[in-house]
Specification:
The complex is a heterodimer of chains A (406) and B (218). Chain A is of the alpha+beta class and 406 residues long. Chain A contains 13 helices and eleven strands. Chain A folds into two domains: 190 residues, no CATH class; 194 residues, no CATH class. In chain A, β6 and β7 form a beta hairpin. Chain A is elongated and about 95 Å long.
């Protein structure tokens, strides 16, 4: 038989008005859910961007003029962008003394629902194994055999394992490695050695259901590594300006552009979530305050009886604050678990529809963000119940029994 | 045991203060049984609440067992009530969310005493409710609820038992039973101060105080 103590009184008091308690907890759940959703969306996109920018590995990327946004969207969403420019552009860029390295890439797309391709509409990126410093950098961090001519690197989102065979335009490739996830569209990309990409195009007439039109003198983008300023290099923005001025047929992308693009895509949603959260938060606090005032007012005589039996003012204060904490805690836990579950279940859909990277933070960080949302809910609950708790506990027992007469 | 000197207590707004207790001085000895009578509104309930430290007077002093009630901080007055004072209200005062036995056990918590369900059961048996220990207020009659409240008041063996019209709305038989319980507490050494309209119920009282418009008239 459990002793009738503080927690039992708290539970019993909350249980006597189940609908009111549930409505209040639901209000807090909505607020906490909005809060954690905004924080997680912000963090998952930031995490994805960090990883994506790391993977980009280039200080600048040159693409045909005016198509910079297309490439940024490809990076973020995995949507295929096909554009080409003359290979000579790469040589012109390499000629500038502030440029340290350049490497070309060519962009292709696998055929849809064709027996000659393992997967439909996959973004295929041909890269130059000899000069590449983006994929090579990944290989350097994950030492292994250098990538062979018929080997590819697959994005983490494709769900293939190293050693698996992929077929594009009738050409078989072995997966040499799977890239770390970034939560970005490039997770859905397959990286093919560029000479093999041109070979694949040449052979496609015979092996594939549709011929791949790709001329060896065409490339899609030039990855640029700048010299450090101490070695006569230029800062990124300055180098981009110089290159765009000198080579009008290119647009230059800086890593910050990718960040800005993702932030721009996300800002509307974050603003909506945060605004809703900020708007609902004071309303929830007001609702908690009003409902607790009502509840305490209804129970004034009982509180007086408790005081007559010897309960201290502190006991009464903690009783009311405890009710608020338990209710807001349960509401916040519900909101947090629901929001995290929805985000986890629909992460791909959310990332695609918002066009942002989506990479889960570590478990510790997730616990930290959830704890923060919980703490804010608890503080709101306790803060809102502070006035009724304080007013009620300050009354003399007889005054409370008489219903607050003075 | 109890000494009140020039105690006054008023209600209402400052410009229209109504005296509930007006310049009352009295002494009640240890183990004395004192009845307080008077018409409705004469200040009986206020007087009992002042003695129990449940409200503060506007003027005067109240001394219980040699200690000045008004000089005590609220926490100490709460401790005094929890350990030494049992209060029987004139209204149904069972806590509705707790069963009869939990109502009876609750004062032990505030008195800082170990929980003792067996003691609570035996006290409930004394008031004739051993078989209703798990019932809630909504499942008990007015008389049964009143008996639960008496059990709750006496479980701490209070030195001072204050009863405010404990039989007001009860039938004659139940009223007699309740008076017998209060009488038993008195015989066991408790000082009893009881407000009532019905003088016939309590032939064993040592003294009767008559209140009229907040003053002792006899």
């Amino acid at each position: 038989m459990t002793r009738p103590g503080l927690w039992r009184l708290i539970l019993k008091n909350l249980g006597r008005r189940p609908f009111r308690s549930a409505a209040l907890a639901l209000g807090v759940a909505v607020v906490a859910g909005l809060q954690i959703s905004a924080a997680l969306l912000d963090r998952t996109s930031e995490q994805g961007l960090e990883r994506g920018l790391q993977r980009m590995g280039a200080d600048l990327v040159a693409v045909p003029s005016g198509l910079d946004r297309d490439l940024l969207d490809s990076y973020l969403t995995g949507q295929v962008s096909l554009f080409y420019m003359d290979r000579s552009v790469r040589d012109r860029i390499a000629g500038y003394n502030f440029v340290k390295k350049t490497s070309a890439q060519v962009y292709l797309q696998s055929l849809a629902r064709a027996s000659c391709c393992s997967a439909s509409n996959i973004f295929l990126v041909g890269f130059e194994p000899d000069s590449d410093f983006t994929v090579q950098a990944w290989l350097a961090r994950h030492p292994g055999k250098p990538i062979g001519p018929d080997q590819v690197l697959a994005g983490a989102g494709l769900g293939v394992e190293p050693g698996a065979t992929l077929k594009f335009y009738g050409h078989d490739f072995q997966v040499a490695g799977v890239l770390d996830p970034t939560g970005m569209g490039i997770d859905l990309t397959v990286f093919i050695p560029m000479p093999t990409a041109y070979l694949m195009a040449r052979e496609s007439g015979a092996l594939a259901e549709q011929t791949l039109e790709l001329k060896p003198e065409k490339i899609s983008a030039v990855m640029i590594k700048l010299k450090p300023e101490s070695e006569g290099g230029l800062p990124g923005y300055r180098a981009a300006y110089e290159l765009e001025k000198a080579i009008p047929e290119v647009s230059i992308i800086q890593p910050d552009d990718l960040s800005a693009r993702a932030r721009n895509n996300l800002s509307g949603t974050l603003k909506t979530l945060r605004s809703a959260s900020y708007a609902v938060w004071p309303l929830a606090a007001l609702m908690i305050g009003l409902l607790f005032s009502m509840s305490v007012s209804e129970r004034q005589r009982e509180i007086g009886i408790l005081r007559a039996l010897g309960a201290t003012r502190w006991f009464v204060f903690i009783l009311i604050i405890g009710e608020a904490l338990l209710l807001t805690g349960l509401g916040a836990a519900t909101g947090i678990v629901t929001s995290v579950s929805i985000l986890a279940g629909y992460s791909k859909l959310i990332a695609a529809s918002l066009q942002v990277p989506f990479l889960w933070p570590s478990v510790q960080e997730l616990i930290g963000l959830s704890s923060l949302a919980m703490l804010m809910a608890l503080l709101t609950g306790a803060g809102a119940a502070l006035i009724p708790a304080s007013q009620s506990s300050r009354k003399d027992p007889y005054q409370a029994i008489r219903g607050g007469e003075s | 045991m109890i000494r009140l000197e020039q105690v006054s207590k008023h209600y209402g707004p400052a410009q229209n203060r109504i005296p509930a207790i007006d310049e009352v001085s009295l002494q009640i000895a240890k183990a004395e049984f004192v009845m307080v009578t008077g018409p409705s509104g004469s200040g009986k309930t206020t007087l009992l609440n002042l003695i129990a430290g449940m409200t503060r007077p506007d003027r005067g002093s109240i001394v219980i067992a040699g200690r000045d009630l008004l000089a005590m901080p609220d926490s100490e007055r709460s401790r005094l009530r929890s350990r030494s004072i049992g209060f029987i209200f004139q209204f149904q005062a069972m806590l509705p969310t707790l069963s009869a036995i939990d109502n009876v056990r609750l004062p032990l918590l505030f008195a800082g005493r170990p929980d003792d369900p067996q003691l609570a059961v035996s006290i409930l048996a004394k008031v004739g409710l051993a078989d209703r220990q798990n019932a809630f207020a909504s499942e008990l009659s007015a008389g049964q609820q009143r008996r639960v409240c008496i059990a709750r008041a006496i479980i701490i063996k209070p030195a001072l038992l204050i009863c405010d019209e404990p039989t007001g709305d009860l039938d004659h038989e139940t009223a007699n039973l309740i008076m017998a319980l209060i009488g038993k507490a008195h015989h066991e050494g408790a000082t009893v101060v009881m407000a009532t309209h019905n003088l016939e119920l309590c032939p064993g009282a040592d003294r009767t105080l008559r209140l009229k418009t907040g003053r002792i008239s006899g």
